[in-house]
Amino acid sequence: MPRSEHDVLVVGGGVAGLTLALHVAASRHVTLVRPASDDQGASRWAQGGIAAVLSPQDDVEAHVADTLVAGDGLCDERAVRFTVEQGPSAIEWLLSLGVPFTRDPSPTASYPYHLTREGGHGARRIIHAEDATGRAVLDTLKRHAMAHPSIAIRDDLTVIGLLGDAEGNCRGVRCLDEQERPQELVAHDTVLATGGASGLYRHTTSPHPASGEGMTMAAELGAELMNLEFQQFHPTCLYDPEGPPFLISEAVRGEGGRLLSTDGHRFMLERDERAELAPRDIVARAIDAEMQRTGSPHVWLDIQHLGEAAIRHHFPTIHAHCLTRGLDITRQPIPVVPAAHYSCGGVATNLDGSSSVPRLYAIGEVACTGLHGANRMASNSLLECLVFARSCAARLAQAEPLDSPPLASPWTGERHVDAQRLREWRLCLRDTMSRHVAIVRRDAGLDAAARELEALSREVAAIMPEAAPSAILASLWHALRLARLTVRAARTRRESRGLHYNPECPHHRESGQPPHPSRWHLADLGPAAG
């Protein structure tokens, strides 16, 4: 098997991976494994912006407090404060690279760039590039990374697993090239920036969502996973069963958008005093309840009252995209539905991105830093990518090289699995998760999900010893085991908190003790984990 040696290996080329690569490259050589699909991943579709304390009318304590409220008691306050305090310098760094954030033309503006407000925030603190912030940031970072002499970008490889050594260190990755021939990339330090797990569900806000592959790969080496039950569903994804997913930014509600049921009722006014600006878990559950009440497959998000000029100014990307789908949002309400969006759980890490496996780091959505707790507040995600990538880079600048050899790769089969069979298994997985482990979970549904996923796992596991290396099969196997751990986490949490809502235990657990994160290892699935 071909093997090559690398210094720092970064898996994933979204905002987190590119930010880390650019910072680490000042002192070390970086290899960035970045498949072309990363251009259509979660980072690009982050429309709203980046939350940071930038206005003189805002302050760190207010941002910290808002984040803690949204996290519903499960945030790590140390991680929250660290992230918020580092936010302004991260934004200054992006500005220095030339990210085209939208300026505020008002002569009385207290900050030169326009700041919007989104759900859960008590102030305008979201800096944005029109309504396509993720794309603007990603394109800028990618341009700088491609020009950097100490960054090598590999877009011809798909990572299917991690390499370890006899001492328990991570030593790089196992890959497949475009002809699905195996390769090993041995590294002194490995950083996962592979995204979240929204691809476990049928409806998502990204055309190419990750399915938690990085989380399971880390768990295979013994890394601890945390808070897997807290999967965020964005309240407002464009409802169009015939077309691809498209996110309708939180900023649409931040600028005054109103949610209406299909019978014209503005239901958020009676659900929460913050109405449409309540945290996402509350809004998503309210929409789900209204859809059940009316029997409609969607609700309406109406911004006609803002006027055509304001809509075109604030939301040019959304306006233009909806026109291509036959919808003029200046004259008609937008049909929206909740869709799987962001994973608040993931690989448990410290403030420098280090996992419980030596020389393995995780940043971005694949990581669980403690910032989001039980529910991520809008636009704290790109902030987390930037802050923890920069912190991880500082740690990596001080790391010493390793010389221990990696252990042998386990995948040696030669049998090719039928592609249609793999698609059917994937659809079965997503259908089970969407029916039983989505916005509202019930005990009977979680029990059914556990049985269905265990049966599917046995079926897939039976072919693994003989199967030839395959990117699609590897992704399915990683996703399936993460789905089972997610169900286990949801069954274990006997309360409703944040994004985990079970009507059979609707209240917070009253134990006199603060709520605890849930922690998981692949061994918790038993021998069938593989």
Automatic annotation (TrEMBL):
Keyword set includes Oxidoreductase: yes
A Pfam family assignment: Succ_DH_flav_C
Annotated spans, Disordered: 493-530
Principal location listed in the UniProt entry: cytoplasm
Cofactors named for this entry: FAD
EC class name: oxidoreductase
A GO-annotated cellular component: cytoplasm
Sample GO molecular function, one term: L-aspartate oxidase activity
InterPro entries hit by this protein: FAD-dep_OxRdtase_2_FAD-bd (IPR003953), FAD/NAD-bd_sf (IPR036188), Fum_R/Succ_DH_flav-like_C_sf (IPR037099), Fum_Rdtase/Succ_DH_flav-like_C (IPR015939), NadB (IPR005288), Succ_DH/fumarate_Rdtase_cat_sf (IPR027477)
Residues in FAD-dependent oxidoreductase 2 FAD-binding domain copies: 7-382
NCBIfam families membership: nadB (TIGR00551)
Protein name per the record: L-aspartate oxidase
Species classification: Bacteria, Pseudomonadati, Pseudomonadota, Gammaproteobacteria, Oceanospirillales
